[in-house]
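[recover] target loaded
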């Protein structure tokens, strides 16, 4: 989701696309943007930071499930158990702070442009 964006075409309709290194690739093949307009939507370092943080949050949530923990760590030591309890909390705090400090300007599929 970190590499998707939405743009408004010349008729005002919201179109969705995937950000690339050259610009945005509109999923609907019938719409084309000028190279200058498409270049405004190219991938930036912040997109990769958001993607990595999203993966870390997913890992933190997954480690809250005891079935996942038992699969990855069948016989964990007491120290490992303590780290597994603290990992989701630490990841949550760090990622929330980074998300707040460095918000994404992308209007993804999850939070597209408004209809107007």
């Amino acid at each position: 989701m970190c590499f998707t964006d939405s743009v408004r075409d010349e008729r005002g309709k919201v179109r969705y696309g995937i950000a690339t290194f050259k610009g945005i690739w509109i999923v609907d093949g019938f719409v084309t943007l000028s190279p200058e307009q498409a270049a405004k939507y190219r991938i930036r370092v912040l997109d990769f930071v958001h993607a990595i943080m999203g993966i870390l949050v997913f890992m933190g949530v997954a480690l809250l499930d005891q079935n996942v923990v038992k699969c990855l760590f069948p016989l964990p030591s007491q120290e490992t158990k303590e780290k597994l309890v603290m990992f989701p909390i630490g990841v949550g705090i760090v990622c929330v702070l980074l998300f707040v400090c460095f918000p994404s300007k992308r209007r993804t599929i999850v939070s597209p442009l408004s209809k107007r």
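[recover] notes: Residues 91 and 97 are 10 Å apart (CA to CA).
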